[in-house]
Design a protein that fits this description.
Elements (H helix, E strand, L loop, with lengths): L3 E5 L2 E4 H23 L7 H23 L8 H4 L7 H19 L3 H26 L31 H19 L8 H17 L9 H24 L2 H10 L2
Antiparallel strand pairs: 1-2
Helix pairs in contact: 1-2, 1-5, 2-4, 5-6, 5-7, 6-7, 7-8
């Protein structure tokens, strides 16, 4: 594991920050081509990615603070350090600011979110590589041949204990979801279909992976949110596929 990639004078370059930056860059490129394929103006992409990144960081840190409020009395400074970002909070924050941005710019939300659905999966894959390098978000103790120890991780594993690399499991699952969404993008043409499918797949994946994650205070919260995301996605997909083509076309033209 490599929590720090290199130092530059007094500054330490965190591997998580680098992988997150690469994830946003890759997500921006995928979203660009998604916008282009759907006939949307690609000029706001840079601002869209920047706003999504800002919302993601704010939401992830806010969720981390809420989950770890018990640490406020013992080590309050740790809650506001560079460490500690919760994925679900990041998604909520990114979606909230993105929704506002799309509303202000009058960009059709269904088409925009569908264009970004594969990008979200790809960005998460990069993020999980960062978690692995930092030695966080790992799984339960294991004797499997590919089990890994993080003695110097941000959350060190106990001496002599190896754990399941659940970060890499989620990375692989996210890459598989990304590939599937790219394949289905030209086939699922109804607005909101692709993002709804992503919510089903990502929510289900995260719900199952939580059973493998190392026991911590926020597991019930994480699984509850994952289940909710999958259910909302399934209901959304059902609603989208039940709409008539005429209504779909009318909504796609009028939605802002």
């Amino acid at each position: 594991m490599h929590p720090y990639l290199f130092s530059w004078g007094p500054f330490l370059v965190h591997s998580y920050g680098v992988t997150m930056s690469l994830g946003f860059l890759a997500a921006g490129l995928v979203t660009f081509y998604g916008f282009k394929r759907r006939g949307l103006d690609t000029e706001p992409i840079i601002w869209l990615v920047a706003i999504a990144a800002l919302g993601g960081v704010i939401g992830a840190k806010a969720d981390y603070i809420l989950v770890n409020l018990n640490d406020m009395s013992t080590d309050p400074a740790s809650l506001f350090s560079g460490a500690g970002l919760v994925w679900y909070g990041g998604v909520i924050g990114a979606l909230a600011l993105t929704w506002i941005f799309l509303s202000v710019k009058k960009i059709p939300k269904g088409k925009a979110f569908d264009a970004a659905a594969p990008a979200i999966a790809l960005g998460l894959a990069f993020g999980r590589v960062g978690c692995f390098l930092m030695g966080t978000c790992y799984g339960k103790p294991s004797t499997l041949p590919w089990a890994v120890a993080f003695p110097n991780g941000m959350l060190p594993t106990p001496p002599g204990v190896s754990v399941q690399p659940s970060q890499l499991y989620e990375m692989l699952a996210s890459l598989a979801i990304f590939g599937l969404l790219i394949y289905l993008a030209p086939r699922l043409k109804r607005d909101w279909a692709l993002i709804s499918l992503y919510m089903v797949l990502a929510g289900t994946t995260r719900f199952l992976l939580e059973f493998l994650r190392f026991s911590r205070d926020g597991q019930i919260q994480a699984q509850s949110i994952a289940f909710g995301v999958a259910v909302i996605g399934a209901l959304g997909l059902y609603w989208v596929m039940k709409r008539t083509p005429a209504r779909q076309s009318r909504i796609g033209m009028n939605e802002v």
